């Protein structure tokens, strides 16, 4: 997480506000022997309310200490259907094995429950296995605006990103991704995720949800073990936040990925122990459905 790296060195109270992404469904814990576990199928993907090509990624786990990327799984039969009778067949992208995409651009609808079905002979025994998942797209939470403010902590400078949004009365869980100067940071390790425990049913007026590092101080972090994962911005950079209302199950999944392996999107390499999943049939990973609310702001060197 962005702010977790900073907090290892600088201690300051931070109100954990929320953001969005959503899905509901049964979840289960997969217990794996991370030293000698057999490979398992890894399924990860989403359907959003943005008109776009929706994607599902399918691969095989590798040994926890192999240090290799997941082998991709081709020739699977992949469908997404809804409780409203919609059904979409996904096709594998020729130049991206293991990535399956809807034939046309589609947009999900809040309040709708989506079902994912994957049929493939994963263990190569001549008999196809079926993996399923279910995800509900929760009500959209509209982000009013954001601001990017300059701040000093322990003689270092940071850009705090702050949100303005009305938090609903229900118990909610949130996820936020961000785009900096048109570059999307889509790794799970860089998602901002948290619950509404301290701000339930309140108007969130400029609360900070995390920090970017000051690009002018980039050289100060060269010796940091996490240097390649740090995010720097400069004055004038434009940041777009994507806020999503997510299920508790998906929230737990993201937190576990970040804590265990700083997971990457579409997914990490070696199998993890006790990872939350909503994939049935013996697979791991997660299928989610969520709406996206966006707001943009420019980094300013005016301390608040």
What would you note in describing this structure?
By secondary structure, this protein is mainly beta. The chain contains two helices and 19 strands. Strands 9, 10, 11, 12, 13, 14, 15, 16 and 19 form a nine-stranded mixed β-sheet that branches. The protein has an eight-stranded mixed β-sheet with strand order 8-7-4-5-6-3-2-18, with no helix packed on it. Strand 7 and strand 8 form a beta hairpin. The protein starts with a helix and ends with a strand.
Give the overall shape: globular
The amount of helix comes to under 10%
Order of helices and strands: HEEEEEEEEEEEEEEEEHEEE
Distance between the termini: 23 Å
Tally of helical segments: 2
Main sheet? 9 strands, mixed
Strand content is 35-45%
Summarize the structure.
With 304 residues, this protein is mainly beta.
Annotation keywords:
304 residues, mainly beta, nine-stranded mixed β-sheet, eight-stranded mixed β-sheet, 7% helix, globular
Please write out the topology:
Elements: H1 2-7, E1 28-30, E2 41-48, E3 55-60, E4 77-82, E5 87-93, E6 96-102, E7 113-120, E8 129-136, E9 143-153, E10 156-166, E11 173-180, E12 183-185, E13 192-195, E14 203-214, E15 232-233, E16 238-246, H2 248-261, E17 275-277, E18 284-290, E19 293-303
Parallel strand pairs: 2-18, 9-19, 14-15
Antiparallel strand pairs: 1-17, 2-3, 3-6, 4-5, 4-7, 5-6, 7-8, 9-10, 10-14, 11-12, 11-13, 11-16, 16-19
